[in-house]
Design brief:
Helices cover about 30% and strands about 30% of the residues. With about 350 residues, it is an alpha+beta fold. The protein has a 6-stranded mixed β-sheet with strand order 2-1-6-5-4-3. It has a 6-stranded mixed β-sheet with strand order 8-7-15-14-11-10, with helices on one face. The protein has a 3-stranded antiparallel β-sheet with strand order 9-12-13. A hairpin with an 8-residue loop joins strand 3 and strand 4. Helix 2 packs across helix 3. The N and C termini lie far apart (about 50 Å).
Length: about 350
């Protein structure tokens, strides 16, 4: 059903003259009457297919048509958060197009543009009842030459799909495989929680290599959002993301997930928001500030009894906005679109 929705949406988004009505008609064929859509800053929460089409899809198509979906991971599963009461589908990959018109006032490049995405869809009664759409918006700003943050600790603009090329799970899979994948991912999260507790009690911020090696392969690949970048191997992950995250953010509080699912060797989860904390200076090269929160996606691939790949999306523009920083507004002023 979600594949049919993607086929219909992709077909209309490939047309240069697609209108919000055209897109809303496709959504109307697949989403529920009380459809709830979560989007990243500045889109936020929308209700109903027409609002989603007008707020998000049609402006994107107008700027980047013909739009093409390149899906690398697709799987479904019962929601571990509510003990299987709901069913979700996770889709991850890239939307590519010709960046010929402004989008969010980001100036067009007239070159091919890659917009990384992860989409979670809750299905019920043969319809899509709920969607969470995470995008790497900062990557689009970088591709247009308007990146607003200091140089990242990881490698920016680096994205690859699964090493094994088996991320499109369109058929049936042994449920035991999905349970095994989710078990490893949950154990990894528990290990990090244990490390956080020890750090609080000892007053020493550290994350030993051997803690990560319990659930990660040594040659693990962590593909982060632009602003943080990607890292390769446990040791570089520690140096280029984990330790800056741990040192730069304090008073962390986990708020749980909306959905947590797995199928085969793939698992994913997201929260709204997952975690709150207080920047104490240094993370993303930014100064200390007051409390803020992060909306985070993790998609995992398991290889044997450990995790091998981790794709991460974070609504960094929302995180920055809660600290009084608005990169899109600053870009508009720099371009003369909005006066001081």
């Amino acid at each position: 059903m979600v594949l049919d929705y993607h086929d219909g949406l992709d077909s209309v988004c490939a047309a240069n003259d697609a209108t919000a009505v055209d897109i809303a008609n496709v959504l109307g064929n697949h989403v529920s009457g009380d459809y709830f859509w979560r989007g990243m800053h500045p889109f936020y929460e929308q209700r109903g297919g027409p609002d989603v089409a007008e707020t998000f899809w049609q402006p994107l198509v107008r700027a980047m048509a013909p739009l093409q979906r390149r899906c690398d991971v697709f799987f479904a599963g019962d929601n571990d958060v509510d003990e299987g009461a709901t069913t979700w589908v996770c889709s991850m990959g890239s939307l590519i197009g010709r960046f010929d018109g402004p989008w969010l006032d980001i100036p067009p490049t007239r070159r091919v543009v890659q917009l990384r995405y992860t989409e979670f869809s809750r299905v019920a009664d043969g319809r899509i009842a709920e969607t969470a759409m995470f995008l790497d918006l900062l990557s689009v700003m970088r591709q247009a030459g308007h990146f607003p943050l200091p140089p990242p600790t990881g490698q920016p603009g680096f994205y690859v799909g699964p090493r094994t090329g088996d991320g499109l799970l369109h058929g049936e899979h042994d449920p035991a495989e999905g349970r095994a994948t989710l078990s490893v991912a949950r154990q990894m999260a528990e290990d990090l929680s244990e490390a956080n507790r020890i750090a609080r009690e000892s007053g020493e911020e550290r994350l030993p290599h051997d803690v990560l090696a319990r659930c990660w392969h040594e040659d693990m690949l962590w593909i982060g959002p632009d602003g943080i970048g990607s890292t390769y191997t446990i040791e570089r992950y520690r140096q280029q993301h984990s330790l800056p995250f741990r040192f730069g953010l304090t008073d962390k509080e986990f708020h749980g997930h909306v959905a947590r699912l797995a199928e085969g060797r793939y698992a994913a989860w997201f929260g709204w928001a997952n975690v709150s904390h207080r920047p104490r200076g240094g993370f993303l090269g930014l100064p200390a500030s007051g409390p803020t929160e992060m909306r985070v996606v993790d998609v995992y691939r398991r290889d044997g009894d450990k995790l091998a790949d981790n794709w991460v999306f974070i609504d960094l523009l929302h995180w920055l906005s809660l600290q009084g920083l608005e990169p899109l507004e600053r870009m508009r002023r720099q371009l003369g679109i909005k006066e001081f």
